[in-house]
Amino acid sequence: MTPGSILRGTAILLALQWVSVLFLQALHIAFPPALLGMILLAVLLLTGVIREQSVEDACTILIEKMGMLFLPAGISMLLYLDIIKAESAAIFVTIIVSSLIILVTTTAFVELLSRPRKGGKN
Questions:
Q1: How many CB atoms are located within 10 Å of the residue 85 CB?
Q2: Which among 13, 120, 118, 122 has a CA at the least distance from the CA of 62?
Q3: pLDDT tens digits, residue range 48-77?
Q4: CA–CA distance from 28 to each of 11, 15, 35, 104 (Å)?
Q5: What is the structure's pLDDT at 121?
Q6: Which of 5, 54, 109, 120 has the most CB atoms at less than 10 Å from its CB?
Q7: What is the spatial distance between Cα 55 and Cα 10, in angstroms, rounded to a whole number?
């Protein structure tokens, strides 16, 4: 891990974020730019346009500091504690239902991919 590799990886991640923001603003699409940036990064990594080594060091640092990056969001929730208490039942039901949907969808997807293919090898 060198300062140059960290800087290069950070520059690539920021450039993808910038491109996704510009793209979404130009098309007036309501979509999270960070999510589009991650999708672009995944596509570029899978196609080999960006090598994994180019962003690996920057991503490692970001993952190591993830808890610190979420701390301001967690603290700001205290400002809305009264709203959270008032809507706690709806929040709880949403968490349970969405978790079940994710669990069922993931299970179905894994089952689909685990089936042997017809006329071919596993």
A1: 9
A2: 13
A3: 898 888 888 888 888 888 877 777 777 877
A4: 25, 20, 16, 33
A5: 59
A6: 54
A7: 7
